[in-house]
Specification:
The complex is a heterodimer of chains A (163) and B (205). Chain A has one domain: 2-Layer Sandwich (60s Ribosomal Protein L30, Chain: A), CATH 3.30.1330. Helix content of chain A is 18%, strand content 33%. Chain B has one domain: Chemotaxis protein chec, CATH 3.40.1550.10. Chain B contains six helices and seven strands; from the N terminus they run αβαββααββαββα. In chain B, a hairpin with a 3-residue loop joins β2 and β3. The chains are: A alpha+beta (163), B alpha+beta (205). Chains A and B meet through β3 of A and α2, β2, β5 and α5 of B.
Amino acid sequence: MATLVVGISDLKIAKPPDTLVTYALGSCVGICLLDPVSRVAGLSHIMLPTQSVAPGDKNIMKFADSAIPELVRKMEQQGAARSRMKAKIAGGAQMFGSANDANSNPMWQIGQRNVASVTDVLRRLAIPIMAQDVLANYGRTVSFDPASGIMSVRSLNKTSKEL
Amino acid sequence: MNQSYDDLSDLHMDVLKEIGNIGAGNAATSLSMMLNQPIDMTLPKVNLVEFNNVADRVGGAEALTYGVMLNLEGEISGMIMFLLNKDFAHLVLNILMGGAFDSFEDMDEIALSAIQEVGNILAAAYVNSISELTGLSINITVPEVAIDMAGALLSVPIIRFGAVGDKVLFIEENFRSAAESIMSHVILFAEMDSLNLMLRKLGLL
């Protein structure tokens, strides 16, 4: 059994007994997808909401609106069906500054924009979000186990959550 | 005109290295004054580092790290972030406040504002180096401090760089006092327009 590490602007597919992990999400968002019948799972670590933020950038794994469809496509190649897929998501924190600070740079709200974009893309793909641990102001390491469908979220100085 | 940090020529990289060198030199002087003891430094390492390799350079994605972030405004827009490891932050706090800070739990508002002030002074040192070289006028915003996993703090500058490439401008500085050697890391981001303006001011574009 292996633990597949998903980097920044990266995505990977796993089946039991392998598991997936992505470390220290800040404003980035981790999207865990599972088809509970085929047990094909995927984890994507996106950093920006839409490809339109960086015209010409060829890395489709960087953006929510291109990475999630790519993750779904790769899962389908492994035998998953989109109609059965369920999602769990984590991340999208605002690491610095106060959310209410009128002077704060719009880039500081990128976590929130990432979560909104992920939610929108999943809704358009008709993939329900079963659990989420998003926003707030702290980092999260996310592990996903295709066998149980449990997403574990670990943070510094907080008890870890199983969702 | 550079469209992305990935397009920078060796000559342009040399300019960024020089900014890093002068900035770190100014920072050592400022730190020395703030801590009231001689602070020396070795030549900083200035590199463009792939997103996925940055966290390893600062002790690992999940390592507890102090981050201080400021935005650059005026003729240049961008941001600067300092990542101080626990030892550096505690050393500075112990000297400045005469306290015994061993853990994250000991941090109170006074300690946080001391870290904020360190960030302010270090940022001014870098910004002055850019202004000295280019003649551009740059303002810095009030520093924001966060203590968290290195990777999570890094996501903030990585996202800014993410819109213009797949690497960050990463400066590793090594300060030495009589007793200790401490490392800090700086991530300096200028929007592409600002970077091109800096290079133009230097006659390199």
